[in-house]
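Closing statement on the 8-OXO-2'-deoxyguanosine-5'-triphosphate sub-project.
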Amino acid sequence: MMTHSNSYIQVVAGIVQNQAGEILLSSRPVGKAYAGYWEFAGGKVEQNETLFAALQREFNEELNIHIHRATLWQEKFYQYEHANVHLHFFIVGVADWSGDVVAREQQQFSWQNPHNYTISPMLPANAALLQELADFLK
Ligand SMILES: Nc1nc2c([nH]c(=O)n2[C@H]2C[C@H](O)[C@@H](COP(=O)(O)OP(=O)(O)OP(=O)(O)O)O2)c(=O)[nH]1
């Protein structure tokens, strides 16, 4: 069991589903590390913030949607050249969010079929997870 809570930045990311069984991907804005790469919306957890509160805050800030409920699905550790991250991936089912999706931070968003992505590149830390997700959602 890895315990890296001191040296690893805590990050939350949400896998939001729609009625068509698609999942929501976001592109990283210009100016950030890996700008233009696709990821699940989310971001760094702040001091004294729960993972779920961070997820709610990031989705409101970035995509204008409200998360009512989310289920922690997977955790991953990854070492980038810019940071070491402890990623917490949440599944947000079709009934677990509301609002109209609006890209509020100069990013793009795209609803994607988890069995057939038409966008790239994806963040390298997510490669294995995207495979597991296709199996999980089939
Ligand atoms: N949001 C998100 N981040 C991910 C995913 N996969 C992955 O490796 N990451 C990494 C990229 C970044 O190093 C880190 C998230 O940090 P960030 O810089 O985007 O967070 P933030 O929005 O809070 O950034 P900032 O306010 O500090 O600019 O986690 C993912 O699917 N979603």
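The chain has one domain: 9-136. With this model delivered, the sub-project is considered complete and its resources will be redirected to Aim 3.
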